[in-house]
Amino acid sequence: MQHEGQREDLIRTATALVQRVELAIDGFPDSLVIGFRRDGAASLFVGEDPVYQFNARGELRRAFQAGKLVTAESGRLVELTRQRADNRVDMLRQELTDLQQDQFLSQLRQTLDKLHRALQQNQYRVTGQVPADQDVVRQASQWIGQLPDTIPVAQAANVR
To answer: Is residue 81 part of a domain?
Structure first.
């Protein structure tokens, strides 16, 4: 995952995302980057945080929100928090409750809907894109439009 000061590097260095676009959109405090892997898996970076990663089926597989890693396990969201102790780092695991998961997915859906509206209404400015000769904005709009109202959670955090 990318962190502070690395936003502009996503367009240059996120080579796993073979198609990617950086956008400035009114109503979002930071730039957004949306990108696609060869297999159609997508990632959405809303500024530095949150970050959402999907598999090729449009299922949420991993996220980074409020400084915490959230991963998919057996169709559930699990929050992982780093805890340093005795020269080692442990990952504390906590499955989100049904209510927490519903709220998380609802917030994600609201973000996607807001982005989709901006794309459909041409209320954005492209600030970077790879490759330059493809319509990644249209691809992103179509991808968001095909997602179900309730975002499904993947069985596992890996891309497949």
So the answer is: yes
